[in-house]
Every structure is written in C-alpha cells, then in structure tokens.
Amino acid sequence: MTIEIATPSPRVSPFGRVRSLLRRSPGITFALIVLVLLILGAVLAPMLHTVDPAQINPRLRLRAPDARFWLGSDALGRDVWSRIVFGSRISLTVGISVAALSLITGTLLGLLAGMVSWLDGVLMRTMDGLMAIPAILLAIALIGSLGANLATICFAITLPEIPRVARLVRSVILTVKTEAYVEAAISMGTRLPGLMWFHILPNILAPLIVQGTYIASSAILIEAALSFLGIGIADGTPSWGNIMADARVYFTLAPWLMFAPGLCIALTVLAFNQLGDGLRDLLDPRLARSVRSFS
Amino acid sequence: MLSFLWKRLLATIPVLLVVTAVAFVLLRLSGGDPAAILAGDSGTPETIAAIRMRLGLDRPLIVQFVQWCWQLLHGDLGNSILSNQLVTSMIAARVEPTLVISLSTILLSMLIGVPLGVLAAWKRGSWIDRMTMSVSIVGFALPGFALGYLWIYVFSVKLGALPVQGYVNLADGLLPFLSHIVLPTLTLSVVQIALIARVTRTSLLEILSDDFVRTARAKGLPERIVLFRHALKNAAVPIASVVGIGVAFLIGGVIVTESVFNLPGLGRLTVESVLARDYPVIQGIIIVFSGVYVVINLLVDLSYTVFDPRIRY
Amino acid sequence: MTGPLLEITGLSVRLRETRKPVVKCVDLSVGRGEIVCVVGESGSGKSVTAFTTMGLLPDALEVAGGSVLLNGEDLLSSSAARIRALRGRRMAMIFQEPMTALNPVLTVGRQIGEVLEWHEPQLTKQQVAGRVLESLREMNLPSPALLVDAYPHQMSGGQRQRVMIAMALVLQPDLLIADEPTTALDVTTQKQILVLIKSLVKVRNIGVLLITHDFGVVSEMADRVVVMQSGAVVESGPVAEVLSAPRHAYTRKLIDSVPRGGAVIRAPVESEIVLEVIGLGMTYAESGIFSKRRSTNALVDVSMELRRGEILGVVGESGSGKSTLARSIARLLKPTAGSINLHGVNIAQMGAGALRPHRRHVQVVFQDPFRSLNPRMKVGRALIEGAVNFGVSPDDAAKRVAELLAVVGMDESAIDRYPHEFSGGQRQRLCIARALASRPDILVADEAVSALDVSVQSQVVTLLGRLRDQLGLSIIFITHDLRLTSQICDRLLVMKSGEVIEQGPTAEIFGQPRQEYTKMLLASSPQFLNRSAIS
Q1: Number of domains chain B is built from
Q2: Each residue of C37-87: pLDDT tens digit?
Q3: Please, what CATH class does the domain formed by A42-49+72-285 belong to?
Q4: Spatial separation of the C-alpha atoms in residues C166 and C196, rounded to whole Å
Q5: Which residues from B are below 8 Å from C60, CB to CB?
Q6: Distance from C92 to chain B by nearest Cα, in Å?
Q7: Which of A41, B173, B238, C355 places its Cα 20 to 30 Å from the Cα of B216?
Q8: Is residue B6 included in any domain, yes or no?
C-alpha cells in the first residue's frame, strides 16, 4: 500500500522558499543564528568590548565576572571575555578548514576507489587502516611529531576524517553506478567525465554537505581537546581549549573560567550538528541511511 | 563459519599493516635524525651510532620497516627514550585503570542506551522520545572534559559526595574503588549512551515500518512481542555495529577523561609521552589501541552471524 | 448465521493531517465460501480498505465514517485488545511480497507457532509443533518437517507465500484478506497459489477478500467483483455480469486494457537483419582464494535475429536469463561467449572506446521508471544528452526535444521539469523519448511496462507498436507476462534457465506451442475465461 501524501508544491520565489525552510526546520534556524553570531564575533572581535587577550594584569587575578571583566579574569589577570571572543577564531578556522580539506581529499580518493576498480582494494584497505587508529590518538601523535601550529593541527585533525569521507563517497558511487539512469547514460555513449559530472557528482553533493557539517563539529571538539591537553595551540594565542587548560588548577576557586569556554564549544558543536541534521532531513530523507546519524 | 573466521582474520592483516606503517612513519615525520631523537638529551655520539646500527638506519626505509615489524611480531615494542624501560612493561603497568573505566562505560551505556532507544522508538513523538533525542543531541555536542568538570563541580565540590580525582585499586577496598570510577564512567558514558540510544531508535523505527512487523500485528500479537521478538531481534546487528564504532570514540574519550580525573592509565601515558616526545611509547600505544579496536570490531562482525541467519559467510 | 461474514458500509478514510479523503463511502460485503475481488489501479484505495478492516491503518490515516462488521460485530468501535484477539483467530491477511512479509531472523516454525501460542495458550509445546506441521502439510509444501526450522530466505517465493497462507489460516479464521498475493510471483507459481486459495475456500468454507489489479486474476477467481477508482466504488456485482456487461466507463477501460489471449496474426517481417546473435553465452564465475570456483550460466548458447521494423518478444520467468540477454545486447555486460552482430559488426567483445560509436544504434528502456531518470537532471537536459554525445550540436539536439516529446505523447512543458514531477507512466514515456534521441535502430524494452498500472501498461505497449510502424524501429520486448506480447510482437522467444527453448511467430506460439514449458506458461497466465461462456 502506498500513500501519496506529498502534493506538488506551487512554485515560489527563492526568498519565500528560504523562509518556509526556516519555519519547517527550527534546527537549521538555530544553527544559522549561532553560526552567524560566531562568525561576526570572530571577525569583529576587536570591537566587542575586548582588550588585548594576552594583556597580563597580575593585580587583577581570578576576578569574578563584573562590568569590566564580563566573564572574569584568569590566573594572570587576562580578560576571559576577550580571550573567548578571540578564541572563536581558532575554533572556526579549524572547523571550517578541516571540513573543507577532508571533503576535497576524501571525495577525490572516494571517486578514485569507486570508479577505478584496481585502485579500490588498495585505497580502501589503507582507509580501513587509518580508521582503526582512534582520531584523537592519531591527531595527538601527528602533532607530537610535526610540532603544534595552526597548520599542523588542521592537518592532524583532517587525516583521520579523510577515510570517512572517502568511504561515504565510494559507497554512494557504488549505489549510483548500478542505477538505471547511469546505465542509460552509458548506452547513450556518455564518457566517464560526463558520467561523473552530470550523473554521479550531483547525487553525492547532498550527503557530502551533510557530512561536512559533522566533520566541522568533530574537528572543533578534537582541537579543543588537544588544546586542553596542552598539545594544541600554545597559550599565547587564546583558544577555547587552552583557556580551559589554564583554568584547571584554579577550578575550585573560579569554576566560571572552565564553564564559559565549555559552553561556547558545546553551542558551536551543537549548531554544526543541528545544521547537519536539518540539511540531512531536508535534502533527502533517503540520506538518513547513507550518512550516519552521528560521526 | 570457520572459513569466514579465517577470511576475516586475514582481512585484518592489511589493516594492521597500515597501522604499523603509520606508527613507523611518525618517528620519521619529525624531521630530526631518528637515532639522535631516540638517544634522548643524554645521547653521546657513541650511543647514537649504536642505535643507528641496531635500527639499521643506514639501510633503505622499507628494510627498516620490515625489521621493525619483525620485532613487533616478537612482542618487542622497543624501549622508552626517557626511562629506558621496555615499552611493553610500561603499557602493562598502566593498562588497569583504562580497562576498568572502558568496560564500565560499555556496560553502563548498553544498559541505559538500548532501553532508552527502544522506549523512544516505541513511544515515538512522546515526551520520552523527545527527551531522549534532546539528551542525545546535547550529549554529542558536549566536550568530554567540560562534562568531567561539571560532574566534579556538582558531585565533588558542591555535594562533596565523591572524590575529585585519582584512582584506587580494587584491592584497596570496593567502595573507594567504585567511588573513584563513578565520575569518569559517567563522563565517558554520555556520548556512548547518546550514540547507542540514537542508533537503536533509528533502526527500530525503520524496522517497525517493515512488512513483517505488519504481518506480526496482523497475526494478533501484542505490541510487546512485536517489539521485542520481531523488531529488536532485527535491530541487533546495527546496535552491535555501533558498539564497535563507539570503541573508537571511547578510546579518544579515555585519553581526555584520564587527564581530567588524573587517572594513571594509558591515556595519561599517551599525553605524557607526546609532551616528552617519547616516540617508542607513542608508537606502542598506537599499535595497542588500534589492535584493540580491530579485535573488537572483528568480534562484532562475528556476532552478526549469531544475530542474523541470513549472514553466512 | 445470517448476514454476510464481512460487511463494510459507507467506509471513509482520510489523511489525518490534511483531511484529504483516501477512501470514500465504500460499501462491500463478503459471504462464507465466497471470493470477492476488489480491483483497481494504484491509488484506488483498495489496499486502504483492506487495512482498515484489519485495524492496521498507518498513523497517517484515520477512519472518517462508516462501519465494518465481522460476523455482525462492529470492528471500528471495538477496543484495540478485541481487534487483536480477532486478528489471526477470525480474520487473517496475506500480503504482496512474501519475502519482506516474513521476519528474516525467525524460523518459519516459530513464526507460525507463535500465532498458536498467543491465541491458544492452553496448547502444549507438542501440540503447537504438531499443528504447525499439519498446517504446512495442508499447503502442499515439500518436506514440512525440514521447513519448520528453515528461515524465509532459504525458500522460494512460492513457498514463502504458502507459508504466509499457512500462518494466516492456522487458527481457522473465517475471513482471509489477500492483498495482491501473487503480484510478486512468477506466472506458474501464481497459478498454483490461486488454485490453492480456491481449494481452501471450498474445503474450509472461508470468505476471501482478494485485492488485485489484474482482471485476469478476477475472472479466474472471483464470485463477485468490486471495482474501485480513486477511493470510491464505481461498480460491483457478480463476476459474469461485470465482465460481460461492464456499466461504468472505468471498468470497461480496465477490462479493455487486459491483454487478451489469442495473438494477432501478423505478416512475417522480411526486411533486412539489423541484429544477429550467435551462440551467446554468459557465465558468472565466482572465484575466491578460499572458496571453490562456482559458476552460474546465465545464458547458454543463445541465438536470435532481429529484422528492421520487427518486434521480438522475449518471454521467461525470473532467472530465465532474459534480462541478461537484454543487457548483453545493449553491451551493459560483456558476454563470455558468442557474437552479437550489429549491422554486421560483432560488438560482443569490443572495448569501451571501440564500442561507443555503435552504442547509438541500441538503446534501452528499463523496468523501474523511478530509477531510470537522474533525479537531479531536468528532462530537457536528459533528452539531449544522447544526441550530443553522438555529435549533434546542442542547439540542434534541443530543437528536436519538442519533437521527441510529441512522438511519445508528452507536452513540451516537460522540458523544464525534474523527473519527480511525473507519474510512472509519464516517466516511462520520457525514458522512451530519451532512448529515441540518438535515433537508434533497436530499442530494448527490459520489462519496461511491468511496473505500471494496467491501463497505463496498454498505452505504453500501444506506443511501442506505433513507434515500430512510424519509425521502422526494431524492438526487443522483454517481459515475464506472456499476455502482453500477443498484440504487438511479431515473433516470440521463450527462455528458461538461460536457454532459448522455443521461438517462432507470435500467433504460432500462442496457437500451437511445441514445448511443455510454453504450454504451461500459456495455461498459467490469468486469462479471461472464454468470454462467450460467461455471457
């Protein structure tokens, strides 16, 4: 028994479409608000009641939040609000660049594995091997060898994410390849580049975008964990993770030092995840199966 | 069945080979002379030369790699740069707390996650479903270390009910032992519960819309039999596989959590060795953790044959 | 007992959210020992009516009015517990797809046994096992003692449907609802299941509500017929009356679109040969390091020829190799033996590069209209792809699109739309238009109409016939439904287990089949019984 519930929707303007989209998906609305605020904050950081985040003020140590120090001051008397606002730059940079890097590399590898059968075995076994090393562990070890700066950190977090993208792309290709419309295109004499560009890539795009948001959120979490462990960004540049690392010793004295950046991380990650969930449901309900609802 | 086991075991060889290769490459990535690094700060030209001889550093990389794999096969992970202790015995000395909190986490999150997911799927759209889903959404977003400090703040600082940090052997009494592992377990379990509950719910919902569930209802069976005998049994495979995937998250979580609670386990050892650039130890830990992950996922794959009669390899 | 077994009066069902009616004021009844067929195309509300009776409506639907009486008891006002007690005991249901309708991880014995355990808790384990065995035996299943411990995937489609029937009838219910029970089965299996149901009605005196889209099945099975169209009953009555003197236009249309036995005699096609297949073989070898080499022969020494302007029907059941033949001719597969001479050039073993210019001549239309068009490509773009690939300039190709759409009876406005905006039949027309874009000589229609409603099916078949006549197109028409071939095919090729067992002019094969298997296929296809006998 099939029940047709969907009725053909009348054509509406793009603006109206976006509006109805936001109304239907509160998750995406929430995510967009948080992410826009974050990006604005990161760009306009110097204008938001901030001081130099590295400015030390030994006489004003561990202040509770007040009108001058919106979120208090840390053990060196630095303004935590300023450090958090500037720290958002690190999280966003890492999240977005890791997502972009791993999507690009993973898609290329996945395309190769899915389309070139003799490469498939070697590539996929390599991906399996990389996936067997827990992501944080691999990132820690890589940074240990390469040294910690923004570039090596991004690379170290990207490498463990690549296999996930490659496997996703490959599995979608293997399904799409057997679709009748691809066979029809083959019998119409369409060459490999045409197949890829017109028939396969458009169908991979949606799951990729969704996967990208999940990767961004997991990258932000991993970067924060690395900084927290003292392996990531050095203390001179504020990041949410290293603000929390600094707060560890004074935790019982000044718990807000720990919870304010913790909340920022959670909100940002939540926003990316909600964006992914919302897009997944929106772009194609069938995707729910091809993209894991987590990761 | 036996041939499947055999095949599946062989399939782990390339995986382990890649893991080993990554671990091998790490030391070479740092750019310095491996022999000088391994000799440590106190290395004299003589000791450096000796190390170079022993590792065959003058020979091609591939020969070095094969030689290293050969050592690994004999259970030789080398010696620590810092303490010159055997890496294997260092790992063995630190394995207990990690094992304890990992097992308790897997146990706790299965016990809570599966029933929660079943309940959410069964009462789809109800408050319990919405609550489960909200908790799981938040659970995915919380950084483990922030969560750990939240527990410490509530249970140790405010309530004073549990110790803040540290680890106590089971030999020193059950109660102290338990009180020290409660908070780490809680910290690690949140993501795992979120993961398991979500997958259980999703796969059950999918199964509940399957034709055979309709058949079971058409036979006049009550909902609980439909749910537990017909639906849950079919969801066993996805649940098992998410537990397998969850192990990767768990290992990552352990590293951070041990640092928060100051547990002398493998996670702390990892961080200590990276900070000290103690490469042989890092390599050893990567091989051990990845090996555990591979073995657990092997067991998960084997469990499919028990859960689903269609899977006969 | 007075009154009918099942009596549905004024039943209305609607979508919960939009309140759009799905079933409108339906009246129907089923008596003991009677088979009532509900006929209609997809969206007619026939299945929803059945599910309402069983109390199995999906959450998206709700009953808006009317009553459903089983033995005089109102089911719509009964408690959920009461309905549950009646299901299995007084009324039972079987479904279209027996593979998915059975739980894959429980044994057959367990699935039948639990009906007994739940409804009759006083039974001992031995009694349950005994009755399970007995019920399987009654369905003529081979070695029931072994089947008890088998899982559904270890059985054939026909066996699974027998198990479903055994499970439905194990408690001797009065009413059996069968929702398209044979649609997913091969014709010969379909025949057996239908015969089984008919004999059970006689032996047990049960009432059957049989839902189908196939008037052939109706004429073989029904005592009475109810015809439904978009949620409402348009006509009902004794089968002989409805079939011989349909009052409603829709009923007439449905009856007319059922292909009738007795092939049209066509003059033999004498034009030049465009395709010649000689000794084609396809062997799938499964090799592993640890498993022994297994091989399956999908095609064995298949030879055939196709002339310009000829429609060749290829008929066979699932596993007969007919689709492998189609895909080999279109060179979506590389056959392992034999030659395929297209305009005298053997393309059987050509590599991708050499093959490309030849591909223009052979185009395929696939079975599933919902997977044959790229969901993210506009129709206009899809229709020029082939022509552009073969050297036509995009502008010229675009100019031809309107013409192509007109040929398949579609409006020009389709150009700017995406595939999901079209129905199954329209999509299949678009697929045909796309295939014609590169001006092929040969069209391979691989079960191209089997996923469509009967009335749409006959339209598409007619379209194919017209394309042959107008364009001189040669068509390989592959189907499992022998009846579809009678009107348009010039010649037939009957396949079984990868081999061609019989070929010849359509009228000859319908009239004097030489092989036992062909005779059986013909006898199994649900036909109108001799219409003069009915009237």
Answers
A1: 2
A2: 999 888 888 999 999 999 999 888 999 999 999 999 999 999 999 999 999
A3: mainly alpha
A4: 11
A5: none
A6: 7
A7: B238
A8: no
